[in-house]
Amino acid sequence: MLLDWLYVAVFAVVGVVMAGLPLALVWALAPRAEYPQKHLTYESGVVPFGQAWAQFNIRYYLFALVFVLFEVEVIYLFPWAVVFRDFITQRLGGFVLAEAALFIVILGMGLLYAWRKGALEWV
Amino acid sequence: MSWLWEIFKATLAAVAVFTFLALVGAMLGVYLERKISGWIQSRLGPKHVGPQGILQTVADTVKLLQKENIVPTNADAITFNVAPLMAAVAGLLAWIIIPFGPIFGRVVIVRDINIGLLFFIAMASLIVIAILLGGWSSNNKYALLGGFRSASQMISYEIPLALAVLVPVMMAGTLSTVGIVEAQRGGWLGIGNWFIFGLPGNRWLLIPGALAFLVFFTAATAEVNRVPFDLPEAESELVAGYFSEYTGMRFALFQLGEYAEAFAMAALTTVLFLGGWHGPLLPGVVWFFTKMFALVFVLMWVRWTYPRLRLDQLLHLSWKGLVPLGFVLVLVTGWLLI
Q1: Residues B101, B288 contacting (CB under 8 angstroms)
Q2: Has residue A29 got a pLDDT over 70?
Q3: What is the rounded distance in angstroms from the CA atom of residue A119 to the CA atom of residue A57?
Q4: Rounded to 5 degrees, what are φ and ψ at B101?
Q5: Helix B56-65 and helix A2-29: axis angle, to 10°?
């Protein structure tokens, strides 16, 4: 069990090293010719106008809010889906499904609410 | 010192998988992409480097290694440098739970994690953070817009993706990828018990099975930012999207991450719905790679068949189409299983 996550950790470290290797090669091989214009950001060939980090309206923030709700609730369905077959063998399938259906219907009403309120429209 | 031995084995496995991804995922993937694009558009594609141009991507890699690494003065240097590494590592980590099939009676897989599918979905969403970091830290307006578009698109399609995964999980009763493939063993020619065809003795499950396959594959295409869902890097409007400012090898690392993710999605679709390594006559590993490459081909085929969606259409398809459909599929599967 814990060993699995050791593998994940080793993979992350080895991945960074392996992905870093070509970058090190570039550092060793690639030519360098520095002049200030090269380090400007690209803006269709003209000198960049101001910073990109200005305030602007992120129009999909409502999607982000709805996403957080639904993603959390889908995660709750995962353990239910795993044990569902065990409950069927114990002849409790209908009861357990009804509980999940209740949960999903409440979720669906939430989605309908967001839909009616126009949260799912790209304005 | 058994844990040292385990670390050694894990390192070997990581190096092997990374090499596999760099060679098969990125290099062969790019070559196939260009060759298939050429074939669909009645032209030849790469032809001159090596027989049939097969060494084209090797030449490209050598070229990219010689390119100067430019960090814009305006950019946030640390995040700018971390983002491509993160994309590549996220693509690599997703492969931990992919089972390739049995060789000498043992299933080839890095680790059969008991919550493997949940882990895969988590790693698939890690690449969003890399893209968002890359887009934001470039301090370039095109890159920023590309990064934000990507975030809105990927979070919208993660929910149908997770919902479609629930259908095979309910049929098999496990989150382990090996367990799910084992549950699809047998049947007519080793094909009959694939989850896309339902369960033996309960053929009505074919309907949610096949529909979940379609939902999953659509959402997976959107997750890996491929046409018709390639708005984040829409080259006709946003230059190159979130990696506009990346040069040489860093750009290649982003590409590696995306191809690794695209191949991983094809592999997971095979595992979840198409019976993994099960099939008649041929050895399991051959079947697994055949199915995976068939799905990769479909991804490339779709690219030249459908035009890019508009952003509002894209979000509507997910929130008003796939998400409600996904919930209905979960309930229908449950009802049919009882």
Answers
A1: yes
A2: yes
A3: 15
A4: 120, 165
A5: 70
Burial bucket for residue A57 (CB in 10 Å: 0-12, 13-18, 19+)? exposed
pLDDT, tens only, A65-122: 888 888 888 888 899 988 888 888 888 888 889 988 999 998 888 888 888 887 777 6
Question: How crowded is residue A88: how many other Cβ atoms within 10 Å of its Cβ?
Answer: 18
Residue B178 tokens read as: 């090996």
Residues of chain A found within 8 Å of residue B173, distances taken between Cβ atoms:
82-86
CB contacts < 8 A (A, B): 219
Tokens, residue B302: 């779709």
Give the per-residue SS3 of B238-284: CCCHHHCCCCHHHHHHHHHHHHHHHHHHHHHHHHHHCCCCCCCCCCH
Give the global pTM. 0.89
Contacts of B10 in chain A (CB under 8 A): 6-7, 10-11, 14
CB A16 within 8 A of CB B89: yes
Distance CA B52, CA B202 (A): 48
Phi-psi category of B300—alpha, beta or left, where left has phi over 0 and alpha has psi -120 to 50?
A: alpha
Dig out the tokens for B289 from the structure. Answer: 């790679």
Q: What integer pLDDT is reported at residue A58 of this predicted model? A: 66
One-letter identity of residue B178: V
Helices (H) and strands (E) in chain B, counts: 12, 2
Please list every residue in chain A whose beta carbon sits closer than 8 Å to the beta carbon of residue B74: 40-41, 48, 51-52
Which residues share a beta bridge with B106? B103
The candidate with the shortest Cα–Cα distance to B38, out of B50, B49, B46, B28, is B46
**Do the chains contact at B337 and A88, CB–CB below 8 Å?**
yes
